[in-house]
């Protein structure tokens, strides 16, 4: 976590030096040239969080025009120059502001001031738990509603289509999705007001002709996933043959979606049992198939959930990797 420290008084600068030398290994002092507002604006995208040693009002006015979304904004911690009150002002959960405030207060001997409701009530942070579990919310508004239910009721009912090892104390497992406040599923079509969280458990096997553009791959995948209402938010990675390591359209497609691609040799693909050989694939690559065995290998699975489907230049197959929920919550 890269931290920017900003101070405007001599006492504040003394505290900044203490922080720099004691706990914030990846930290830097932000020079003030034309004021706090200019300094923060200049540095906003360069740091994961800020420690501002000054009055909270100054910081609020300075960061107001910079705010975009709690999922991407850096955290902001504000403290007085003695370090007596260390306030987590912005991005307390996802951005790590609460953890940073606690860390700074532990050094200064001060008090970490945490105002997020779940922390005050001793409840799990739903946002942070979802991130730790590699779950993606289909709708940000539904996350806000679920957080409010958690704070108001002290518990949430959860229905999961994945394995469950353990859950935070506030979660109650239910047997039917219509009873749930949270549904964990890699499918999209749900007539419900529940928060839909998508596990990253789908592996897409890809075969394509040389020169296939990224847009053609995207259109094929959209149509393919819609076959059984699978969510693209649940795609964990792509898998293909090593002959495609330099396939520009495939690489661009993965990069645009922030997906990794796992490549296999023809010998590895041919070692997968139960694959119906493809004469065309064997002639082009030496492998009896590409999309299906690549998906199975990458997911460490022995069953496809969607068998291969061919378009003019693209072949796709889909399988599911193991995925287990736990009560673990890591600080951002």
Write the layout of secondary structure elements.
Elements: E1 3-7, H1 10-22, E2 27-29, H2 36-43, E3 49-53, H3 56-63, E4 75-79, E5 85-90, H4 97-108, E6 111-113, H5 117-120, H6 126-132, E7 135-137, H7 140-153, E8 156-160, E9 163-164, E10 171-173, E11 182-184, E12 195-199, E13 202-208, H8 214-225, E14 235-241, H9 248-256, E15 260-264, H10 266-270, H11 279-285, H12 291-299, E16 304-310, E17 314-320, E18 324-325
Parallel strand pairs: 1-2, 1-3, 3-4, 5-6, 8-10, 8-11, 9-18, 11-12, 13-14, 14-15
Antiparallel strand pairs: 4-5, 7-12, 13-17, 16-17
CATH classification, class level of the largest domain? Alpha Beta
User: What name does the CATH topology of the largest domain carry?
Assistant: Nucleotidyltransferase, domain 5
Q: How many domains in all?
A: 3
- Uncertain spans: none
**Quick one: CATH superfamily of the largest domain?**
CobE/GbiG C-terminal domain
Radius of gyration: 24 Å
Instruction: Tell the overall outline.
Output: elongated
User: Could you state the order of secondary-structure elements as H and E?
Assistant: EHEHEHEEHEHHEHEEEEEEHEHEHHHEEE
**Content of β-strand:** 25-35%
Helical run tally = 12
First CA to last CA: what distance? 9 Å
Mean pLDDT: 91
**How many distinct beta strands?**
18
| Structural class estimated from helices and strands | alpha/beta
Strand order in the largest sheet: 2-1-3-4-5-6
CATH A-level architecture of the largest domain: 2-Layer Sandwich
Helix share, percent = 25-40%
Largest pleated sheet: 6 strands, mixed
């Amino acid at each position: 976590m890269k931290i920017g420290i900003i101070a405007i008084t001599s006492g504040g600068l003394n505290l900044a030096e203490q922080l720099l030398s004691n706990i914030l290994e990846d930290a830097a002092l932000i020079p003030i040239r034309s004021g706090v507002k200019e300094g923060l604006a200049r540095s906003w995208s360069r740091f994961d969080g800020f420690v501002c040693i000054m009055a909270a009002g100054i910081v609020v006015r300075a960061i107001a025009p910079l705010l975009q979304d709690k999922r991407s904004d850096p955290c902001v911690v504000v403290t007085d120059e003695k370090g007596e009150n260390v306030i987590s002002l912005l991005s307390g959960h996802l951005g790590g502001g609460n953890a940073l405030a606690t860390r700074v207060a532990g050094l200064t001997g001060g008090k970490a001031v945490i105002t997020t409701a779940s922390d005050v009530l001793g409840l799990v942070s739903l946002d942070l738990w979802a991130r730790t579990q590699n779950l993606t919310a289909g709708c940000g508004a539904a996350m806000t509603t679920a957080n409010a239910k958690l704070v108001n009721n002290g518990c949430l009912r959860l229905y999961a289509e994945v394995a469950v090892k353990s859950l935070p104390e506030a979660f109650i497992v239910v047997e039917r999705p219509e009873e749930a406040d949270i549904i964990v599923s890699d499918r999209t079509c749900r007539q419900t007001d529940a928060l839909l969280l998508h596990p990253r458990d789908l592996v897409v096997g890809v075969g394509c002709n040389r020169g296939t553009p990224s847009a053609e791959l995207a259109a094929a995948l959209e149509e393919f996933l819609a076959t059984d209402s699978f969510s693209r938010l649940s795609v964990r990675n792509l898998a293909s043959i090593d002959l495609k390591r330099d396939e520009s359209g495939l690489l661009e497609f993965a990069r645009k979606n922030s997906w990794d691609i796992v490549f296999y040799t023809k010998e590895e693909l041919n070692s997968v049992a139960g694959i119906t050989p493809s004469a065309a694939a064997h002639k082009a690559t030496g492998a009896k198939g590409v999309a299906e065995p690549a998906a199975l290998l990458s997911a460490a699975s022995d069953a496809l959930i969607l068998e291969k489907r061919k378009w003019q230049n693209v072949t796709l197959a889909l399988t599911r990797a193991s995925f287990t929920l736990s009560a673990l919550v890591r600080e951002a």
